[in-house]
UniProtKB/TrEMBL annotation:
One Gene Ontology term of the molecular function aspect: protein N-terminal-serine acetyltransferase activity
Annotated SUPFAM superfamilies: Acyl-CoA N-acyltransferases (Nat)
Coiled coil ranges: none
N-acetyltransferase domain residues: 5-170
Source organism (scientific name): Actinospica acidithermotolerans
GO cellular component, one term: cytoplasm
Name of protein: GNAT family N-acetyltransferase
PROSITE patterns per record: GNAT (PS51186)
């Protein structure tokens, strides 16, 4: 299982699929499409320095066997107290690549990467309460279900409940 995917910086060869994943309702799917955005944003971000910064980032999820882009993982900083930053992570996989175990492995690799390269103690993720597959992937990746955030996310014309998960530094063995 550990050799299914790897994480790597998003390359220019990935931009067409990366853009499609974020902007095509059919590709994003009903749980990841939040409305049309400013066309060209992905390419502008790429031209202005890519998708990595001190407070957020995106990496490609690539199949190990042929390095093809199968999706992306992203993170951004949130504060749980004035001096208590943590990361909130998310994942989007191409429709054809879902259900193959990529989500579980990618989210675990991202947690290992973030704990290995930053000082945070907590990484959290939330998913739509109806997204049972993502909830299972997070649990299999070592995340703990913390509870339901009622009416927390607006999508498809309605406020949706989200399920919150977390993993702590002490729960992850970081290689290296």
């Amino acid at each position: 299982m550990s050799d299914l995917v790897r994480l790597r910086p998003i390359a220019s060869k990935d931009l067409d699929l990366f853009e499609r994943l974020r902007e095509d309702p059919a590709e994003a799917g009903e749980l990841d499409f939040f409305g049309f955005r400013n066309a060209g944003t992905v390419r502008r971000q790429w031209a202005e320095g890519g998708f990595l910064s001190e407070s957020r980032g995106s990496l490609a999820v690539a199949a190990v066997d042929d390095d093809r882009f199968v999706g992306e993982v992203q993170w951004h900083q949130v504060l749980q107290g004035p001096a208590s930053p943590c990361w909130n992570i998310g994942i989007m996989l191409l429709t054809a690549e879902r259900g193959k175990g990529f989500g579980k492995r990618s989210q675990r690799l991202l947690a290992e990467y973030l704990f290995g390269t930053t000082k945070v103690n907590r990484i959290e993720a939330s998913t739509d309460a109806t997204n049972v597959a993502e909830q299972r992937a997070l649990e299999r990746a070592g995340f703990t279900r913390e509870g339901v955030l009622r009416g927390a996310c607006f999508r498809a014309g309605a406020w949706r409940d989200m399920v919150l998960y977390s993993i702590l530094r002490a729960e992850v063995v970081v290689a290296g």
